[in-house]
Amino acid sequence: MRDSAKTLDAMTLRERSDMMTLVANALEATAEEAHEIGDDRFAANSISLARIISGCASEVVTRDLPAAELLLQHGIALIAQFQDRAPRSTVH
Q1: How many helices (H) and strands (E) are present in the chain, helices listed first?
Q2: How far is CA 50 from CA 4, 18, 24, 41, 46, in A?
Q3: How far from the centroid of its chain's Cα atoms is residue 70's Cα?
Q4: pLDDT, tens digit, for every residue of 24-54?
Q5: Whether the Cβ atoms of residue 13 and residue 61 lie closer than 8 Å to each other
Q6: Arithmetic mean of pLDDT over the chain
Q7: Taking a C-beta distance cutoff of 8 angstroms, is the pair 61, 16 a contact?
Q8: Which of 2, 10, 55, 63 could form a disulfide with 6 if both were Cys (CB 3.0 to 4.6 A apart)?
């Protein structure tokens, strides 16, 4: 059964922390992929944002929800941007 989408304000502290960790991990994976295809600048941006999100996760989830939302929005947008432009392998 699928849960309905929640805002950060409606999430528990654990859910907020998990969401930030999930986005940070996805950014790190994106950074690895970008590095593998030679896009070191994109990799550096992704890993930097992942580290910011990870470093702020415990503090931000309890204090500054607008900042957490902004970090998550930027992280998700960066991941989407990479997925939209990254070459896809074709299965034959």
Answers
A1: 3, 0
A2: 26, 14, 4, 14, 6
A3: 11
A4: 999 999 999 999 999 999 999 999 999 999 8
A5: yes
A6: 85
A7: yes
A8: 10
